[in-house]
Every structure is written in structure tokens, then in C-alpha cells.
Amino acid sequence: QVQLVESGGGSVQAEDSLTLSCAASGDELRLYFFGWFRQAPGKEREFVGGIGWNGGSQYADSVKGRFTISRDNAKNTVHLQMNSLKPEDTAVYFCTAGIYWPPRDYWGQGTQVTVSS
Known about the structure:
Blueprint: E1 2-7, E2 10-13, E3 18-26, E4 33-39, E5 46-51, E6 57-59, E7 67-72, E8 77-82, E9 91-98, E10 106-107, E11 111-116
Parallel strand pairs: 2-11
Antiparallel strand pairs: 1-3, 3-8, 4-5, 4-9, 5-6, 7-8, 9-10, 9-11
């Protein structure tokens, strides 16, 4: 079992930056991929990006070049650095973990990000 707790959401203006954090707890966390999904009102859940144990990461085209995922294995935390935010980035963001890619076995409770134009 893996428990995930997100923090850092909030309301910002377009072009601002925001960092989300995810605190993970559980056994053998090094075995897991970690990722971020988001869900906007009336839309399907979307994979934002994810990261492996060695730091290798992938991103959705919609956020590539603006978002960066990092992982601190010693502190069991994952961060989503979001730059140049757009109103269309408004969504509830979920931290996830999983053995397979994309990671979706375990989910945090979600944190709201609202970007105003």
C-alpha cells in the first residue's frame, strides 16, 4: 500500500508559477513510478506526466516545456513545478503511484489549481 498526500494548490494568475508537492508513504517506494494526473470540470482525467526511480520523466504535450516533475527519493516526495500557467491548466491535480506506466494504482486526494486570465 502507498499513501499519497498532495499540497501546494491554489489560485494564481496566467503566466504565474506554482509548485505542487506529494508526500508518499509505504514500503518499497523505489519500485514505483510516480505521476500527476489532472481533471478539469466536465473533462476526462488527463495524464500530466510522471517520473521513474532514476529521474527519467515524460510529459503530456500540453505541458511539455512548462511543467517539470522531480523526485526526492530520500524524503519520499514528488514535486510538480508548473511555469507559465494558462487558464486551461485549471483542474484538480492528483498525485499517483504505480508499478506500471502510467502510474495509476494509488491516488492522492487531489489539490485544486485555478488559473485566472
